[in-house]
Amino acid sequence: MRNMFAEVLYDLARQDERIHIVVADISPAGSMAKFREEFPHRFINVGVAEQSMIGICAGLALKGMRPFAYTIATFSLYRPFEMVRDDLCYQNLPVTVVGIGGGVIYSTLGGTHYAQEDIAVAGAIPNMSIIAPCDPAEAKMATQYVAKRPGGGPIYLRFGKAGEPNLTQKDSEPFVFGKLRYLRRGSDVCVLSYGVIMKMAAEIADGFAASGKSVSLISCHTLKPLDREGISEVLRRHKQVIVVEEHAPQGGLAPQTKQIAWDIGANCRIDCFTLKDEFVHCYGSHEDILAAHGLSAKRILQATM
Amino acid sequence: MDQAILSNDFDASLARQRCMKYRRRILDVSQRVSALHIAPAFSCLEIVDCIYHALMRPAEAGRSIDSFLMSKGHGCMAQYAILEDVGVLARGELDRYCTASGLLGAHPDYGSPGIEAATGALGHGLAMALGMAIAERNRTKKGALLPVIYTVLSDGEMQEGSTWEALMLASSLGVSNLVAVIDNNDFQSLGRTSETHPTFYPLDEKLAAFGWEVVEMGGHDAEALYNAVTMREGRKPFVVVAKTVKGRGVQFMENVPIWHYRSPNPEEYRLAIANLAEVSS
Description:
- The complex is a heterodimer of chains A (about 300) and B (about 280).
- By secondary structure, chain A is an alpha/beta fold.
- Helix content of chain A is about 40%, strand content about 20%.
- Chain A is built from twelve helices and twelve strands.
- Chain A has helices at about 1-15, 30-40, 50-60, 75-80, 80-90, 120-125, 135-150, 200-210, 230-235, 255-265, 285-290, 295-305; strands at about 20-25, 45, 65-70, 95-100, 130, 155-160, 180-185, 190-195, 215-220, 220-225, 240-245, 270-275.
- The longest helix of chain A is centred in the N-terminal third of the chain and has 14 residues, at about 1-15.
- Chain A is globular.
- Chain B has about 280 residues and is α/β, with parallel strands linked by helices.
- Chain B is built from ten helices and seven strands.
- In chain B, the strands form two sheets. Chain B has a five-stranded parallel sheet, sandwiched between helices.
- In chain B, helix 1 packs antiparallel against helix 2.
- The longest helix of chain B is centred in the first third of the chain and has 19 residues, at about 10-30.
- The interface of A and B includes residues 41 and 60 of A.
C-alpha cells in the first residue's frame, strides 16, 4: 500500500505544485525517491518531530498548499494529537494525515506501534474524515481522490504497510468517498470490513460462498463520514451481516453498524468481530496478533455459520 | 488571508501615541467583560505595533505581502486593537468581544478578519509559521520579493517541546523568511520564570545553538526592535528575545500575576486610565 501511495503521489505532484509531503524520518520507499529528487523543496523531512510535522502541514495549507503528513499511524495521530485537533481540524485545513500500519500490523514491534484505536480517536474530532483502503488498488483511488478533491478539511488516511494482496477485482465498484464499495454482491450474507483485515473478510466470504450462500463483501473504506444509507441498505437486504474490524470495540465500524441497525429497526442477524479492549503482549505475524485478539477466519466462520 | 498595513515609515513618537491609544482601548473593552488578558497584551503591544505598522511591507489594496501569526494567542487584544485601528476589524466588533453576537474571543480564531491562524494552545504557532514560511519560499518566483512570516511567542510557550522542535527545524531546513519575537516578560501563572525554572535561561545562547540569528533587547523600545529586525543578516531564521514587562503601561498591573486574566473593577479602571503613560522602553 505504501509503495502504491508513493507512486501515485509522485504522479500527482507532477501535475500539482501544491502537493507537499512532510515526513517524520519515515518515508515510503520506492517511488518516493523520485519525488524527493525531482521536488526536493516539496519533500520535507522534519526528523523525529511529529508535532512539527503537523504544524508545518497546517502552515503550508494556510498558504494554499496541499500537504500530506506521513509516518507510522501512532506517530502521525497520537503523538501530535493536539496539533491534529487544533491546527488541522479546528482550522478545517486540507491536510492529509497518513498513518502507516493502522491496527496491529506492526506485529513484531509491540503495543507502542499499534494504532488499534485510531478510528475512534480520529473520528471523535469534528471536521476530520477517515479513509482506510483495503488493498493497493483502493489505496491508489483513495490517494487520487484526496489529492484532487476541490476543497475540504483534514483526512486521516489509514494504510497498511507493504505487500498487501489486491482484493479488488475487475468488476469491483470504483472508489467513491463516503460510499460503501461492493467487492462482491450477494443476497444472503454480507461481510462488512475495511483496511488490511479485508483479506480475512474475503476468506470468510469464501467460506459462506462454499456452503452455497450468496455473499456480499464490502469495503467500508470511508469511516467518517460513514455511509449510513449504504449500511442501512446492507442491513435491510441481507439476512446476516458480519462486521470484521481491526480496531478497538469502541468507536469504530462495529458499534456504528449496530447503532444504525437499531435506528432503522433492522431484523437481520449481526455479528461483530473487533480487536479486544486490551493490549496484548505477544509478538509474531500479523495473523498471530489478530488471533491473540480472537480474530481468525476459521473462528469467525465457526461462530457465524 | 493577507493582513492590512498602514505604512512602512517608522516614527517612534507616533508609535508611542498609538500604543497609548491601544492600551486605553483595551482597558475600555475590559469594562464590558468579566475577564480578558490585559497584561499579556500590554507586554507585547510595542512589538505587535512595530510588526504591523513598520515591518510588514505593504502590497496592493491595503494588504501586506508579509504575514503575522500571533503564536501567544492570549496576547490577541494587542492584535485586535491594531486590526481595529487599521480598519480590518470593524469597531463594533471589538465592542462585541466575547459575546454571543460577536466574532472575537479571548484567543484568535482562524476565519476572523486579519487572523492568520487559530492559536491559544501554546507551542503551536512556530511550526505553523514555519510551514507558512516554507510555502512562501516554495511559491515565490526567482527575483520576486520573498514574503516574511512574523510571529510573536510568549516565553511560557518556550517551555513547550514542540516549540524547540520547530526552532531546530527552521534553521535545519534553511528557512530565512521567518522572524520570531519572544515576549520575554519572565512571568507565568505560578511565578517568575527565572525563579520557578532558572535553567530556562539563558535563552539567547540556546537559540543561537539551535541555528538562529539572535538579538536580545528591551521589548518596549519599538524603534530599536525595528532597527534590529530590518538590519538582520537574514541568512538564518531571526529571533528577538524581547525583554518586556508584563502589564507594561499601567503601574499597578506591572509584574502582578493576577492581571494575566482579570478585568479591572470600575475604580481600578479609572486609576488605570489616569495612570496610563506613553511607553518608550
